[in-house]
Amino acid sequence: MTNVKTLIPISLQDLNLWPKPDLNSLPEHIRSLYLRRKLAIESYARDESYKAIEEKTELNQKEVRRLIRRCTAFSESIGQIWGFFALIPNARISSYERRSPIDGIYRGRGAYAGAFEKLLEKYPDVREKIDSEFLKKGGGKQVFEARVTLRNLHDQFKSTLKEKGLTEDDYPFNTNDVAYRSLCTYCRSLSHRGGKVAMRARAGRDAANRDPVGNGKERLIRCLRPYSSVQLDYLKVDAASIIMIKNSHDEWLEVLVARWYIGLLVEEDSGAIIGAHAAFEMNPSGDTALEVVDSCLRSKPFDSDDCRSEYVDEGKALVVQMMPELEYQTFSSLKVDRGWANSATDVVNNIMDTFGCSICFGPTYSWWKRDLIERINGQLTRRGLQRFPSTYGSSPHDTKKDKPGETAKKLKIKITDLVAVVYGAIREMNEARKDNLEHSSPITVLRSALKNPKRGFFHQPIPRKMQEGLQLLAAVDERIVAGNIEKNVKPYFSSGG
Questions:
Q1: Which of 122, 295, 361, 433 has the greatest number of CB atoms lying within 10 Å of its CB?
Q2: C-alpha distances in angstroms, 39 versus 4, 53, 69, 84, 330?
Q3: What is residue 80's three-state secondary structure?
Q4: How many angstroms separate the CA atoms of 270 and 443, rounded?
Q5: How large is the C-alpha radius of gyration of the chain?
């Protein structure tokens, strides 16, 4: 039985897992010493004697043991042991600790190495205040500056030290910059060690949410064939329009609509738009989510008098209209954000009961989790809605924006005009050639996959009985019945305000 080396913990005895530097990045004279040290560690791990190790590497027992302790030391900067990085000559694996006392005589910048850390050790509440202000950490009703600058933080730092009785003869007041450089260095280390908390405090919520982006990890569940995964999201229409409403007196009323949504359902493998629904609401509701998903089931083209058919050939814009063989096609996974319209009980239950799919709820305000549909939303806006003279533009400074409300009324831009443009753009995008599809269009990719059994894609419709009695749009509306027998208030319930 091999003797377990006491200096290397059992959990670290697989040296292949130790962090190691790139040999090509080391100069020749450093590389040779590094390789000798590495050979000594590997020989020790193979249970060779210290005498044999010294004959091979010229490193004695004391030096080998010192190197092993360096290699197995934990590094806060990389979140694991130093590994073979600790064998690089002159590599510092522990922070500098000042031992000499600090006097009141100014001796230049180099004479105060480690003094700032010594100061924070003496006054831990000063460290805590710097950390809380810089990272916006604290409980209760404490209010922090939106993003404190290092200058303001330095002013607070000096005020706190003066409250503790430090004078102009004490460190850091006896230095030229009153430890401003040291404070900046300390705050940089806080940013590196603080992770997502530091990123949120210094760069905002969106920057913190991007933490998992580009981390080199593949998705656990990947889309291997068409209709494996679909993505649902809503596009806010950024062009003003008017909606014509006819009252009971045969009078047409013009109502200016500044905000409404188009719900889109996108197939992940091909990037095809398979479902869409215009929702004339201030915010998407659960009914909108169900209408979007329902639109991908039936192949019937739009009628000629339907505004959606104005800019599409034969009234066909969605995939199922252009490929009737995919009628009532199911999918395996639906990806949505955690908006209340998507997480409503009726929405989740009806979709899962109808399609038998899983629903993956991603985080809100994180477009990179569903980058495909967000990219299509942007293309759809640029291709159609932002071309209207009543557009609200992409930002307050967009030069395309010119009194959108007044323009919509003046030019009589109706909401049906915008809907027609949107569906025309949907048809165009489903037939547009894309670089990532080897210059094929989404509809061509789906047709090819349906004809080629090797792709693993086939028509898998929902059961026939479910098609005949489809309950996807069914919803339960719960209301509380109220009343008062003593006051003779008849039983009633309120609905719709």
A1: 295
A2: 18, 8, 15, 11, 59
A3: strand
A4: 8
A5: 33
Residuewise pLDDT in 10s, the chain (497 residues): 344 457 888 878 889 889 888 888 788 888 899 999 999 999 999 889 999 999 999 999 999 999 998 888 887 666 688 889 889 887 776 655 555 555 555 555 555 557 888 888 888 899 888 988 888 886 656 777 778 889 999 999 999 999 999 988 888 888 888 889 889 988 888 887 777 787 888 877 777 766 666 555 666 677 788 999 999 988 887 666 677 777 888 887 877 777 788 899 999 999 999 999 988 888 888 999 999 999 999 999 999 989 899 989 999 999 999 999 999 999 999 999 888 888 888 899 999 999 999 999 887 666 556 667 677 767 766 665 555 555 555 555 554 555 655 665 565 667 788 788 889 989 999 999 988 888 999 999 999 999 998 888 989 999 998 898 888 988 777 888 999 999 999 999 987 66
In this structure, what are the phi and psi dihedrals at residue 481, rounded to the nearest 5 degrees? -85, 125
Strand-pair partners of 276? 264
Q: Beta partners for 262?
A: 235, 278
Helices (H), 19-146: 28-45, 50-57, 61-71, 115-122, 124-135
For residue 376, give the nearest of 231, 258, 261, 259 by alpha carbon. Answer: 231
**Helix intervals (H) in 275-327:** 286-294, 319-322
Q: What letters, b where the CB count within 10 A reaches 16 and e where it falls short, cover 363-393? A: eeebbebbebbbebbeebbebbbbebbbbbe
Look-up: residue for tokens 């909108």?
288
- Report the C-alpha gap between 19 and 244 in whole angstroms: 68
Q: Are 71 and 82 in contact (CB under 8 A)?
A: yes
Residues 6+ away with beta carbon under 8 Å from 12: 18, 72, 81
C-alpha 345/C-alpha 225 separation (Å) is 29
Residue whose C-alpha is closest to residue 389's, from 376, 400, 375, 377: 400
Do β-strands 229-236 and 261-267 pair in parallel, antiparallel, or remain unpaired? antiparallel
**Rounded Cα–Cα distance for residues 359 and 332 (Å):** 9
Rounded to an integer, what distance in angstroms lies between the CA atom of residue 476 and that of residue 492? 18
d(CA 468, CA 41): 73
State the pairing for strand pair 358-362/333-337.
parallel
Separation of alpha carbons 298 and 371, rounded Å: 27
Scanning the structure block, which residue is given the tokens 């004479």?
111
- The answer, as to whether pTM is greater than 0.70, is no
Q: Return all residues near 9 (Cβ < 8 A) that are at least 6 apart.
A: 72
Residue 406: CA atoms inside 13 Å, Cβ hemisphere, count? Answer: 3
Contact assessment for residue 71 and residue 87, using Cβ atoms and an 8 Å cutoff: yes
Query: Distance between CA atoms of 43 and 489, rounded to whole angstroms?
Result: 92
